[in-house]
Amino acid sequence: MATKTSLFSRISKNMWNRYALALSAMMAALLIHRVTTLFLGDYTPFVALFPAVAISAMYCGLGPSISSAMLALLGVKFWFIPVTHSLRVLSVAELVGIVEFLVASAVVIALGEVLRRYHVRLLTAQGELEERVMERTAELNAANQSLRHLSARLLQMQDEERRRIARELHDSVGQTLAALSMNLTTVRADIERLKKTAGTLADSEALVEEMTKEVRTISHLLHPPLLDEAGLASALRWYIEGFAQRSKIQVDLELPEDFDRLSQESETTIFRMVQEALTNIHRHSGSKLAKVRISRSESDVRVEVEDRGKGMTIAKQEELASIGTPGVGIRGMRERMRQLGGNLEIKSNGEGTTVVAHLPLANVSTTAAA
């Protein structure tokens, strides 16, 4: 259907092409009939000419089809009907054959013109549809590009907000709690003689100390100061040590001693990826061992987090691999990697789960420490 429509389109664009095709088809039909007559003898010539009339009616239009039919009559009259002299009167059988040919040709031309016009309308509608599809595709691409920019901006704002909250907790709330702790210590020393209240004050002081530790922990988890001040290696060692103490999971960190600083955005992305992967191990895997490997080649940085837990089902892996509805943490990790030109892959079986990320060095340019 597509080839037929394309051929029809090329022919119908030029009037001379339509006339050339109609007359060429009729000349070919006359030559074929002439050749077969020499070998098979004479028979009604119009039978061989009907296909040429039909082709002209279907592809060439009304004018070329009529011209083709007239050429057929001239060819039959002066080439196929025997003549003894130029003014010989046609016989009744010959006249009947010519009339039958004209009537049949008129019917074929009329039907062909109806079909040709239908094809013209169909071709026009197809062109309009293709143009609309191209417009919608362009609009969809523009919308997807805007969505990517928005996603990148949201992640950037999230990291900036984490830094701001961490600074506020450390500089404001932390200092206030420290002053309160000192005041309570002084009050406890002054009223130690009041046995009934001394115990309560001691408990309050302990609660304040615990609260201070929690605030500092939250501040560091939101955005650890070591990440900006000392770099990725120091921040990861600090976080993994604290995670191992809290979760009772043994975590091994493999990191080259000469691992250089990366860009701030790249170090934040790798830290959050390791943080999220270890949190998922603690929540879901049941593993008591975990390993974090970070290596750097000439072309990229490779981050791998592995556990020896129960793994994930095939259905869960297919769900995570699809574009559909992975968890917020997995989606965040993948989006962070994609914004830097990298990728995230999750492998799992009955012996554990491995999360592997690659970041191209073109997008993780080194940054000198402040």
Describe the structure.
The protein has 370 residues and is an alpha+beta fold. A hairpin with a 2-residue loop joins strand 4 (343-349) and strand 5 (352-360). Residues 81-87 have low confidence and may be disordered. A five-stranded mixed sheet has the order 1-2-3-5-4. Helix 2 (15-40) packs parallel to helix 4 and helix 8 runs parallel beside helix 9 (264-285). It has helices spanning 2-12, 15-40, 46-59, 62-80, 92-190, 195-222, 225-229, 232-247, 264-285, 314-321, 328-339, and strands at residues 250-254, 289-296, 300-307, 343-349, 352-360. The protein is rod-shaped and about 145 Å long. The relative contact order is 0.06.
Low-pLDDT ranges: 81-87
Strand content: 5-15%
Structural class: alpha+beta
Number of extended strands: 5
Biggest sheet descriptor? 5 strands, mixed
Shape: rod-shaped
Number of helices: 11
What value does the average pLDDT take?
76
Task: Write down the secondary-structure element order.
Answer: HHHHHHHHEHEEHHEE
Rg over alpha carbons: 43 Å
Helix content: over 70%
What is the CA–CA distance across the termini?
68 Å
Order of neighbouring strands in the sheet with most strands = 1-2-3-5-4
Please give the structural blueprint.
Layout: H1 2-12, H2 15-40, H3 46-59, H4 62-80, H5 92-190, H6 195-222, H7 225-229, H8 232-247, E1 250-254, H9 264-285, E2 289-296, E3 300-307, H10 314-321, H11 328-339, E4 343-349, E5 352-360
Parallel strand pairs: 1-2
Antiparallel strand pairs: 2-3, 3-5, 4-5
Helix pairs in contact: 2-3, 2-4, 3-4, 3-5, 4-5, 5-6, 5-11, 8-9, 9-11
